[in-house]
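Hi C.,

You asked whether I'd gotten around to modeling the 297-residue construct. I have! Everything is below, sequence then structure, no commentary in between.
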Amino acid sequence: MLFGPGTAFGLGVLFGPGTAFGLGVLLWPGLPFGPGELFACRRVGSLLLRGRMSTELTCSSCGGTFTPSADLLERYPGWKPRSCPSCFRKGQGGSAASKGGAGRTGGGAGRTGAGRNGGNGGKGAGRRRGSGPRGGVEEHLTLAEVLERYTDGPDTGVFTDGAASPNPGPGGWGAVWVVDGEVCAQDHGHEPHTTNNRMELVALHRGIELVPEGVAATVYSDSKLVVQTVTEWAAGWERRGWKRKTGPVENLDLVRPLYELVRSRPEIDVVWIKAHAGNRWNEYADALATAYARDEL
């Protein structure tokens, strides 16, 4: 028989009157089953999620009910989206997205970005860099306009962006977690006086926090400075007592906690992506980061 001792009882509960309770029993950690039996139990639970055990949730934006994709629920156990797909596409949903506001970013929340040009503008002053759909300039599109205009680029991962205009000056950050083209979570915020680099750091930090611990994900940033900070330079700064050979580490209040977060999440890969090159979800993150300058998200 495929299942070990005690499993048949679990299945009896599953297919009897107490179906929901049976699923909880089968999937609960610490059961006295061997690895093979646990695997089999999880497959049974997965099939139930796809079939008779539909998960109906209430959208925090429109109040309507919706059922998340069974594939997403299986891939990310325990995750519950707060908004229905329709509200996300309209740019109204998201975890704390439309509530971002001031005070969400601040000193302790950031990601990397220190190092050369750290928090004082440097390269990337204002917005924007590189070539792109509009010559690399900021378009200030709404989320709906981004989704309508762009279709290229990766459709799975966490996409982050930061902005300040002028630099230094008012700025914002945005992060969105996407799986197979569907938004799982997003967040954004702003500060009245900051720098582009600080907002890039904050965006990366917040983006990683969107993904549950243990879930593998690629996190994209269009700031090479930020990516190199966490993947190359920060380890050496830490060994030297958080000092650079040429002077202090800029934005250390953001860099250090960001590096510690990245190091504690080995399942996360931090990768650079080109800015304003037509990548749909990078443009989406940019729209979140610049939302503070618009009346509409």
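If it helps when you're writing up: The longest helix spans residues 35-50.

Thanks,
B.
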